[in-house]
Every structure is written in C-alpha cells, then in structure tokens.
Amino acid sequence: xxRPTSPPTRRAVATATLIAAVAASTVAxxxxxxxxxxxxxAKASASRTAKAKKKTRTTKTSxxxxxxxGLKRPKTISRKCGRSKSNAKIRRRTSSVSSTTLRVTxxxxxxxxxxxxxxLVPGPTKTVxxxxxxxxxxxxxxxxxxxxxTVTxxxxTVEVPATPxxxxxxxxxxxxxxxxxxxxxSDAPANYGGVDRFATVLNRxxxxxxxxxxxxxxxxxxxxxxxxxxxxxxxxxxxxxxASFARFDAGQGPWYDSTALDLxxxxxxxxxxxxxxxxxxxxxxxxxxxxxxxFLSANTDVSQEPTLQALRxxxxxxxxxxxxxxxxxxxxxxxxxxxxxxxxxxxxVAFNAAVADVVNAEAKKLTDAGVNKIVLSSHLQSVANExxxxxxxxxxxxxxxxxxxxxxxxxxxLLVPTTGDPAGGFPTPVGNYPLRLADKTGRVVPxxxxxxxxxxxxxxxxxxxxxxxxxxxxxxRSGPVRVSGRTGDPDVAAxxxxxxxxVVDPLAAYSKVADETVLAQSEVALNGGNPDPIRQxxxxxxxxxxDAFRFSVLxxxxxxxxxxxxLQTVGLVNGGGIRASIPGPGPVSQGDTFRVLPFNNVIxxxxxxxxxxxxxxxxxxxxxLPSAKGGFSHVSGxxxxxxxxxxxxxxxxxxGTIATPGQxxxxxxxxxxxxxxxxxxxxxxxxxxxxxxxxxxxxxxxNGNGGDDYPFRKPTVQPVxxxxxxxxxxxxxxxxxxxxxxxxxxxxxxxxxxxxRFQPVPVP
Length: 764
Description:
Blueprint: H1 10-33, H2 37-56, E1 77-78, E2 90-97, E3 101-108, E4 113-121, E5 151-154, E6 158-160, E7 168-176, H3 195-211, H4 215-218, E8 222-230, H5 239-249, H6 256-264, E9 268-270, H7 279-288, E10 294-296, E11 300-301, H8 306-313, E12 317-318, E13 320-325, E14 328-335, H9 340-343, E15 350-351, H10 355-368, E16 374-378, H11 383-389, E17 398-401, E18 435-438, E19 444-448, E20 456-464, E21 470-473, E22 479-482, H12 497-515, E23 518-522, H13 540-558, E24 569-574, E25 586-589, H14 590-596, E26 602-609, H15 611-621, E27 633-636, E28 638-642, E29 650-652, E30 657-660, E31 665-670, E32 675-678, E33 681-682, E34 689-694, H16 695-699, E35 718-723, H17 724-733, E36 744-745, E37 758-760
Parallel strand pairs: 7-8, 8-9, 9-10, 10-12, 14-16, 16-17, 17-19, 23-36, 24-34, 28-37
Antiparallel strand pairs: 1-2, 2-3, 3-4, 4-5, 4-6, 7-20, 11-15, 13-14, 18-19, 20-21, 20-22, 23-25, 24-27, 26-34, 26-35, 28-31, 29-30, 31-32, 32-33
Helix pairs in contact: 6-12, 13-17, 14-17
C-alpha cells in the first residue's frame, strides 16, 4: 500500500483496485461469481493479451494500465458472536495486500479461522523503442515494462486452530514420607495407619480430585491433574523387612516393600537415608522390584556402586523426573541427606552437601526444558532444614519435607490420637499446613510434610497460572488426611483388598511365627521410645542391649574367637540403633528382638582404646543434649556421670579429631572400680579398654570414623560373628553361669529409667 503522506500513482491505485477486485471474487468463490463467468474472463484476458502483443510491435511509446471498474476490496467485518458457536457466521474478516499477494483472514464464531492467499502474477512486458540518436552511435531501444492483465492464482486454504485461551492448572499433590515398612494397622499407634487402609484413603483423594470441577474448568479456562510422591524412608529394618529379604533370597518374588509401592502408584519417590541401611545391593533389589516409580536423588553419585549405577543408567534412578498430568509437564527433584554416610551404610555412594546448589542447577535444567511447575521432594530429616534451604532456592514451586516425622495441620483437621484413643489426647502440630516461606527471589513457596508410618496422606491443592506461578492455595482441599482403622471414626477406611492380600496378610503370617517364639519373660516394660528416652537419657532397654553387646564380646573371648588381651571391656550402644520398645510385664519374643534391633549390624570389638579416647567417645554421646540424637550413648561395664552445663565437645568431621575438648563427662569408673575420669579430667595412668559395639558404630561413618560420627578414627575392628539382634537373643536365653539372663528380665536389674549407670549430675 502507498504511504499516507504521498499521493498514490495511477499505477499503484490501479494495482490495489485490481487486487481488491480479485480478492472479492476469490472470497466470494465460484458460487457467487457464476460458472458462466469463467469463459468470459478467459476470452477477455486473451483479447487484451493479443492487443498488447500488437502494440508491442509498433514504435509508438505508450503506457497502458488495465483496471476492472465496479469491483471493490473485501469488506472488513468485526462483530460480536453472542452465544453463537456457528462456523458459518463470521466474527471478523481482515485483508492485507502487497505488490504480489492478497491475504484475507476470516474468523468464525465457532472458533475456525480461514486464511486465503492469492498470488498476483503480472502479464507479459511491452517493450517501446526510444528515439534514435543521430551520429555514429547506435540507436539503443529503452525497454519500458507495461503490465498486462493480472492473473490470479489462488493459494491453498489454511485451517488455523482457534487461538487457545490462557488456561490455569489445578494441581492436587498427594504425598507422604517415612512409611518405614509399617504396613499393619496399629503398628504405631493402635487403631491407625496400615498401608492397606492408606491405599483406600489415597484412592478416595484421587477420585475426589478428579470429580471436583471448578467454574473455570467448566468454562474451559482450567485443566487439572493429580501427582503422588513419597519423600523418602520407604522401608526400615525390622521383622517386615526380614520377611522381604527371605522372600527375595528364596526366589519367591520381589520385596513386599516393592510390591506395596507399586500398588500405591507413586509417580516419584525420594531415596532417604534408611534406604541405604543394608547397603547398595539391597537398595538395588528394592528399586529393581518396582515397575512404575522413578526414584530420585540429585545430590548422590552412585557411579562406584555398579548395581545402583545400572539403575541410574536405565533412568530408574534419576536426579529429577518429568511427569505428564492434565496436559501439563510437572518436574520433581529429589535430595537425600548429605550426612547419610555417618548414619547409614551407603558403601561407595558419594553425597554432595551443597544441596541448594544442586537443587538450583536441576531446577534450571527443567526450566530451560520448558517445565515451569517444579516440586522438590526433600528428605533432610527435619522441616527446620527445609526452612533454612528455601531462602537459597529459585524456580522451585512446592517443597515436600521428609525424614522428620513432623506434623503440619490446621484447625479442624482430624488427627491421629497420641495413644490411638481420642481420650489420650492429640499431638500438637509444629505449624500450619502448608508452611509458606519465601525463596531467593521473594516468591512464596508452600512447604508440606506429614507424620510417617502411613498415618496420614498429605494433600495440597494449588492453582498455577499460565506462567507456572502459584496464584492460589485451596485451603478447603489441603491438609493432612488421617488413616483411621478405628470403629466409630467418621473417616474410618476399609483395607484395600489387593494390598491386604499381597502385603499385609503375608507379613502378618511371617511375624506370627517369630512372635510365637518366646525367648524370655520380663518383669518390667522395656522402654525404647524414640526420642524419649532412647535418644536423650538412660533407659532400661538401652542398659539391656549394652549388656548384651558386652556379653557377646566376652563370650567370643572365652570361646577363642578373638584373643584375650587382659583389658576391661566396655559396652557402647548408639541410641539410634534401638528402634522399638518391648511391652511388659510379659513375654519377650524373637519378634520383639527383631523389632528392637532390626539392622544388619554385627557385634565387634575395638581393642585397646586409650583412656583419653574413651572419654572422647563418651563426650560425643552427650554432645547434643538436651536435644535428642541417635548418637546418645548407652553403656555397660562402666558408670558415668555427666553435666550438660559444661562445654560440649566439637569435632573436625574430616578426620574425627577433636576441635574443642568436651568438659561434660565428670566421672567414669569401670566395673572393677578403676577410675578413668575424675573431676572432668582423665586420670593419670588410666588403662586402655576394649569397646564392645557394632561394626556400624565403630566404622560406619565417613573418613574412617564411626557411625553417628563417633570419633573412633580408623579403628581396628574385630567382628565376633553374630548380628546384634542375635546378641540380644543369646543374652536373654544363656544360663546365668555363662553370663546370661536365663530367660528372665528382672525389675531389680533393669528398673524403669535404668540403674543409674549413665546419669547427669545435679546442675547448680
């Protein structure tokens, strides 16, 4: 089109008029023009071409422009459709032209768009000779192009989908953490939990999310999807896990834990610290036995563990995964506790402690790939750690916290009673569901978690805008949803038939055999409550287990399994290795011993530990007080007093050397009366001792240190050939003459609260 500021030439006007005329005839189509017009147009065109050719042969100079009077450019249309959805009613029509092309765009009320393109092809060019120039020069004709009749060539009709409306996306996130192989209702606490009832509640929530239709969804402005995630510690040592081992090792099928995860239908699951408790090979068995779930850990390098590396190469283990839900791509990232080497047995798996850097890098990869809705499934052991992490993150929209067994809830949420009976009261949540924390850019990130052991399904319902930002949290459809098996509860859930038949019932049969094997009678309940008392103070169960460890080492010396070096033996147990209580008074079964001591830890002797290092080990056992810690010490063969008001010991974790000497251990006296520590100082000339413990406590940590970072510093470790559960079993049943309990645990020897062998001194 000519510029508005300059007058159009006759030729430009003629061309534009002709283009408009052609467009009008093209848009109208053959039906409007009439079939009989075609020969007439062809004839007229041929006549004009013949005249043009005749004029070309003359020497007269002339310019001719042909137009078709009476034909107009297509009319621009713009109207409202009202309720019409007809593809015959035009909503808007526009046209544009160039020197060679006409483009007409027509949009209909039904949403269909038609673009018609017509190419304009100029006719033959006429040459007019210029005047002859006298003299010796040759007369050179000057060609003058004169357009002949324009030929219309219709382009293809293009169907263009209706311009999509910007849609929001409603996500229902269903999550849990720390299932820990607690598959039966009443595993903890009574009347609640159970993986089969958990499945029923989970499926109820999936159905409710699918059936809930918002006004925006009805209007076609919103889509929806449901994502299901576990944030770690999917199994735990115990009798149920022993049953899984027995099944797998006998070639009878995958772990019961693998079957449970498959039937629950997780889209993704984080690898927690407990997944490494039995080493990389066992973890590979668990993961390999599942068929649909991707296992996530962005901050681990498994390249030195072939069984796990093969799973990572296949995509079964990944740093993150992308899940399609409701036409949207959702990214999920997983992280594992960096301290796993000091609290579990990951073999040669390497852990990156720079969690924020790892998560940000993975989130950027997902964002660069066009994924704008990202969930972090974290297993950092406490929601307090996620509170510290989120201000360092960007591009993460939701965080699931695992590992801490923290309960988030809102007013009106139904909670699991503390004792399994509403009369016993309810737990106090540590915060609202969800927590709302600001990330590095100031965006608010919802943080969710649940108490573990299949007692709750967490449900978070949020709406994302088109750009992938959360613009709403639906509080009415968010919060912890408890799993009840208590008759009379309004939300009681029936067991899921498949999980009951394939997991719960077989495990119950396996446990029944062990529970019917009675080892001893106890006159008192043996308290292994977590964290109180087992990770905070002396316990009669802690005393019993420490005595069993010492008994096993002394028995191994007596039998010649390890040499007698003439030194006194001290039993040392980390509280985190004790995982259950034994009710009483009543029988103590083999099943009880497996629940109390469920890991594959092996009883070992660390010989000739200097008195100064023994004090360091004891100082480390009370370092975290008054807070609970898995490294809290339970002892045998020694009496210790400590004062938490004094300086605590700190370590150089790289090598286990002492950074700050501790002053909390005030006295320590061996069973034979020998003083090791007096008034907070090691007694001059105090002898070395042997330490009876597990291989994990002696060397299960990083850089040659012990599990829970006990400062053993690459010790000599002498296994005695029995698992720590077997140690307790043998101690309970051995005759008194051999140092055992002869099948009786007396209240006099193991009173409630312990026998004061490891106690705080009064603080002034």
